[in-house]
Amino acid sequence: MKKLKLTFCLLLATNFLIAQFTATGNYKTYQKITNSRRDTVNIFMYNGITATDTIKYTGTASTANWFKYSETITNTSNYFPELTNIKDSTGYVFVANGKKTYIWVIDYQKHLPVFSTFDYNLSQDKPCESVKFNYSTNIPLNYCTPDNISHILDREFTVKYKTLSWSNDKWTEIDTTQTIILPTSELLIPTPLCNTEFIISGDQYAADLGLQPYTKTSSSYTTVAVKCHITTLIASRERDKNNEADAPMQKKEINFSGPIDIQFLSNANEPSTLYYNWDIFKNKQLLINRRDKEHRYTFTEAGVYTVKLKASNQKCDDTDSITVTVTESALFVPNVFTPNGDGMNDEFRVAYKSLVSFEAWVFNRWGRRVFYWNDPQKGWDGNINGKKASPGPYFYVIKASGYGLDPKNPDPAVLSTVTKKGDINLLRGKGN
How far is CA 66 from the centre of its chain? Predict the structure, then answer.
């Protein structure tokens, strides 16, 4: 804690010292602490130094004098608070009451960041992850510490380019920027997902001085990166009485009763000619393999399925997968319904899940067939030839098939057919 407090006090003292100087011209100041003695160098960055520009001490010391780094410090008892004839890339020592302040002067106009080369390099190890750039420039911007050791100032640039963003089940082209610090041994930018140009601009000193940034644009880049996102469309299916909602466009886990016909969309960014590979597994066993951009499959058997997609070109690939759970077949038959128009239990319907086939017959007490249907989403409304049927018991026969439907053989992998028979009571209220 003491060490932190000491550092904080030193920073306050340093800021106080530099606050005791004023200068003419368009400039900004920066502070660097680099050498082993922890000397602070105050950098005055000018937007062009003129012959009349000065740096002046405004403090209350009784003695003050200016020296260059290369000069021997003498005559510190004099009072010369103003520095004139300022030179680019020159270090100065200001001595006030025996205390030294180090200042380095830079004329930014003599060190403008001009790129003679800025372009991508297609010969790199990981083109799917990043784009490597070749660049040559006069980037190095130096200052010296009092021991005459040269140090490089970091120069901050931004690289602007277009890429794709996956949101709300669709690709959107967006502008994005990457901040880079130069010089660097290797300039890498995350590989964009669409064709684009790269525009580098900077640096931060130009922004601080209120100057227009230097910019350079690369040649057009054709992306090789691949990204895919599986989405689904329910092509057709039978709904049960639980009113299952349609599958969302994208979901990593889908649960439905069968049979369910699903269209799988790859949604790859398609940078170039792509190859698609779809695999559908059940219990880790491969059921089907397809090579189309989109794939459609009907799930009939109950179980848990894994749908995997690989999209690839000659350089890059990406994978995605989802899980589809098809519930076991089930069939439940009520014993009463009340077709009185109140919107509740007005039809004789079955509750079901994952039926492969369905047929149902209703007979009156004399064995005459009064209704037939083969869609489990529908039912009998209690009318016979458009007239209300008499209240009382009726006899039904239902024949259905599904996986694991037979209680004698409930194996979800076995398709079985069952026949249910029984009575259904038709009740009507007064006036119905």
Answer: 56
